[in-house]
Amino acid sequence: MAPIERLTPDILLHITHYLNVKSILALSLTSKKFSGLIGDERVLRHLVKTDYNITYKDPLLTWRQLYLQLQHHQISLCPHLGAIPDELTTSKRRLATTDPRRPCDLCQTNPATFLSLNPSSDREVCRPCASKEEGPSSVQYNMESQSLYCFKCSREVGGQGSNANEKHKGTVILDQLKRPRATADMILEQLKRPSNGTPALSPATSPPPPVTDDQRRRSEQLLYVQELRQEDMTRKYYLLEKSWGRAWMLFRTREGSPSPGPITNNKLARPNGSLDPNIRLPMDKYRPAPETHADIISENLWSYLANAYGVMGHAYSEDDIQGPEYTRLRICVDDFKHSVELYP
């Protein structure tokens, strides 16, 4: 065996960060061990970033699919949109929903119409001053039209006319800016009520306003993003049937998609109701795994989904993968938990 073939997968993955796509392709053709490099989602994610400066995508696409679209000039994405974090600060959400007719923080002459989305700045500026901003501030929030505008690309980004990748990223940002955080919190609290009943109201208490599908969709997407950013992998994790998880993702990210209905874990069960040890589970938190039977989610997210949608059948957690027959599944869950350490 050649010395390079003795390298661990993590070291080999690190080496690919110094190679371009042609070199990685050539390396993948040298041996069977390296043949999967060109299809590894972590490698493709890095290539998308280094070759096109893009760090976001539509969750329905793999990084490989996005790379091919960019390579063949099928789409054009704003590279500056990725500099905006998915979860904005409380101060930005508050400023975005107050009266924008304040003087520009820079010239003190024109009214402020744009809010900086730079993580280190809450500056409110007029259009002439906004056009001079550099770096992460090149994409700004237009408080009048409630849209995102990139002064480097000279166009609106993440809106209705954008492609699915930009639109997904833009929706995550705009949903936090278009209404007060208190409203979002109220919706989430109402969504977390058990589906089989709500706490009794006193005669003097007015019932909460009804939650529309659009409000639920936006609030659950925010909840999902917050949960995805959570790196505390010491909590107990649950298994969620893949088909239901996909239906929920479409509901969160596609306007007009129907609610997924009650959670069904029937495809994960044996005839006696116990967990099937032959199912396939993901081994990486951030890498798409389309050939698996279930997603692995935290106890916190499972509790919310179970209360909001109800469960038909069994709820399976780490407690159900004990014993010799579940050794393979135990390894998958352990690898899944440790996968967060692979990403900076």
TrEMBL record:
Domain F-box residue range list: 1-47
Checking InterPro entries in the record gives:
DUSP-like_sf (IPR035927), F-box-like_dom_sf (IPR036047), F-box_dom (IPR001810), Pept_C19_DUSP (IPR006615)
Give the DUSP domain ranges. Answer: 210-321
Q: Which Gene3D superfamilies match?
A: 1.20.1280.50, DUSP-like
UniProt-annotated stretches for the region Disordered: 192-217, 258-279
Return one GO MF term. cysteine-type deubiquitinase activity
The organism's superkingdom is given as Eukaryota
**What protein name does the entry list?**
DUSP domain-containing protein
Source species = Absidia glauca (Pin mould)
